[in-house]
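[Primary structure, fold]
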Amino acid sequence: MTRGRFITFEGMDGCGKTTQLRILAANLRARGLSVTETVEPGGTEIGQQIRRILLDPAHTAIHARTELLLYFASRAQNVHQVILPALHSGGLVLCDRFTDSTLVYQGCGRGLDSATVLQLDAIACEGLRPDTTVLIDIDLETSLARARRRNERTDLSESRIDDESSHFHENVRAGYLALAAQEPERFILVDGRAGIAEVTHRIAEALQNRV
């Protein structure tokens, strides 16, 4: 049986990746393709419970290693329950964040060793790697402003990472750009400062020969 394609969306908070993932999913379904959407952390009932712990701004006492393990606990469940079954059936899977997020947020942001992150990835993800990663890049000022407006509009208690220092977020962005430079064959780098329609067009063009 032909394995499906695994496409991840990455970027700083407020970059528009969730919106673009949903637009792409709708467009692919309109072409008659089987598409599964999922998110990290989350994607399953267990993952959603872990997500609430991780992103609650009241949980300031979470140690960096605890945070790392919780992200991979959510991811392991998502890979086993959602992602691999969909890929094995030949479908497309679009995932909002994956291990690249952990490499830059917990690695570059928190200062944890990338080798440790990759060891946990090997255990939790069973060797699964994205076929393509869409990285939507925006500057720090735009990221924080959009994230604040989103949190005010939706009244979600998921702002713990948003509340980190500017230095933290600068390291995250630098980490993302470094990953894209290391794996240009996997990453599609898109400027997220343009309007939604323009970003959608750029992503569609870049994915034309990949889906």
Residues 6-207 form a domain with the Rossmann fold fold (CATH 3.40.50.300).
